[in-house]
Amino acid sequence: MNKQLIILGFHRSGTSLLTQILDQAGLFIGDKLLPPALSNADGHFEDYDFFSLHEKILKYNQSNWMFHDEVDLVVPDFYINRMQALVKQRNQEHKLWGFKDPRTALFIDRWHDTLDNPYYVVIYRSYMECVNSLLYRASQNILYSKSQDISFWKKPELAYRMWLSYNQQLIKFIQKHKERTIVISHQSLINQYP
User: Fold this and answer.
1) What is the DSSP string of 117-149?
2) Which of 53, 69, 114, 134 has CB 3.0 to 4.6 Å from 165, enough for a Cys bridge?
3) If you average pLDDT over residues 119-126, what whole number do you get?
């Protein structure tokens, strides 16, 4: 039977570091990974197929990665079919595989219904550390002309609302699926706890 390991957490909470460690330990996380960036020099360790699917669903709902409960997210059947096709393809190619994209938190119930034998690793980091990291990354992107997005300065509460929205989704999910989930802190990962 196939197994899937899904890495969950808010943006800037350590999901890339955690996924990098799991990748180095032999977990297949995809062939088409997003490239490294200024804020993630080693890479994001996000499979483009999952990342782009989440982006499309958010766009369909007139939202984006900065989702903060401003709309009720709807996942139409054609995107559910795409989820099922991705899972089927991965299951045919790998007995054990996984993926990571912070946006997964917003659709985790749908993924859980689609996956046949999933397990979850959730990494959390304090809201202040995540928000500071988001603001720092946004500042770097503006400074180095990678972006002109000043959303965090136009709406100072936005990053906090995002953190709360994503983490509320994760808490609800963890409570329903405790037997399949392990939760670790960013700090324990940095400290290399077993």
Assistant:
1) SEEEEEEE--HHHHHHHHHHHHHHHHHTTS---
2) 69
3) 98
